Amino acid sequence: MNWLKSTLSAAVGTQEPIYGPEAIQSVAQQTAETPYTVLTKDHLRWKAYQYTNVETQTFYIMADNGTLVFVQVIYSNIAGIHTTAVFNTKIFDLSGEGKHVWHSDALSNFMFDDKMLCFGADNMTITLNEEGDAYHIKSTVNPDSVVDLKFTRKAPGFVIGKDGTSYFGTDPKNPWGSMVHSFWGRCSVEGSITTKEKTYDLGGRGVFIPAVQGMKPHHAAARWNFINIQTPTYSGIMMEYTTPPSYGSTKVNVGAILKDDEIVYAGVTNTATHTGSTTDPDSEWPEPTSIKWEWSGKTADGKDLSAEVDGSLGKRLDRIDVMGEVPGFIKTIAGSVAGTRPYIYQFAPNEKLSLKLNIGGEEITEEGFMFSESTFIS
């Protein structure tokens, strides 16, 4: 048993000491000088760190015909000795019956190009074009999920602050961990995913988020909230995580309001509030039933901006037990040793929600297609 616990802790880790909130240098500290930075091609390079980290590229698709999809590559490194790569696709069943088309496939012979801008493996590629404003994702890794998609950036991409990164550690000059998210918050999408049953036309809008968790994921965050709302004119993006008590249960929130060719606002003065919840009897987590997301700050030309999405989440799309594939006795030990019980709740209400904006006194309301996630880890 002691051997098993020590082996498991190498992967998931035991609980950390209480370092306090001063042991996280939130990206919010950078915004006093630099509210946000527009992404260049160089920002899109894969990092492939040689220490424990998880690096992802996630493409969310909201097709004009109402289909909701995400496509994702997860590249992970455990302790610098073992790397894996997985390609995930998920076509959501919006009927409420939970018949999602979900595939998760381990990749073989994965590699990066010499500029670290493109990723490839046997039977799949993610290629960034020369201009740095479009990705082409192709995969025949799984014959029941043949992917051919093109994402083209419409609004400028961004990171919050100078580099988008929050750093973890008691010595700010020598951090032992990090967290960064970059965003293409408003994209056009063309292409399809073909299954054995049908071909899904996925022309519409999309969001691309590359991210790096440069430490054990459950050490960086205990909870997450994410929203992506796309209206005819605007896109609203918000990503919020709360650190474990070891880092003072600190909230880090990054978000933006975008239009085609324009970042209307990007910053950290945003909130995600669960205005209603119910106890999930299986996980015992307080599953949200309604959430209010609020953005506030200044536009690029100095106008006051406030925005909100407030409403019922409706019936959840899915609940993911992240450790569901782990043998039960190992899951029990992981929970007792590391305090981890990761569950992801996904929502896309059938009733369109409204994005309400006030920009320099001008009030604007547009309905849109919303997808959100709330995650509980520890």
- Write down the overall mean pLDDT: 91
**Compute the gyration radius: what is it?**
20 Å
- Low-pLDDT residue spans: 1-11, 327-337
By CATH, the architecture is named: Beta Barrel
Structural class: mainly beta
Domain Svf1-like N-terminal: 54-213
InterPro entries: Ceramide-binding_SVF1 (IPR051385), Svf1-like_C (IPR033394), Svf1-like_N (IPR013931)
Keywords: Cytoplasm
Protein name: Survival factor 1
List keywords for this structure.
mainly beta; disordered N terminus; 378 residues; AttH-like fold
Q: Your description of this structure?
A:
This protein is mainly beta. The chain has one domain: AttH-like fold, CATH 2.40.370. It contains three helices and 28 strands. It is globular. The two termini are 23 Å apart. One of its GO terms (biological process) is response to oxidative stress. Keywords: Cytoplasm. InterPro entries: Ceramide-binding_SVF1, Svf1-like_C, Svf1-like_N.
Summarize the structure.
The protein is 7% helix and 53% strand. It is built from three helices and 28 strands. The strands form three sheets. It has a 15-stranded antiparallel sheet that branches. Strands 18, 19, 20, 21, 22, 23, 24, 25, 26, 27 and 28 form an eleven-stranded antiparallel sheet that branches. Strands 2-12 form a two-stranded antiparallel ribbon.
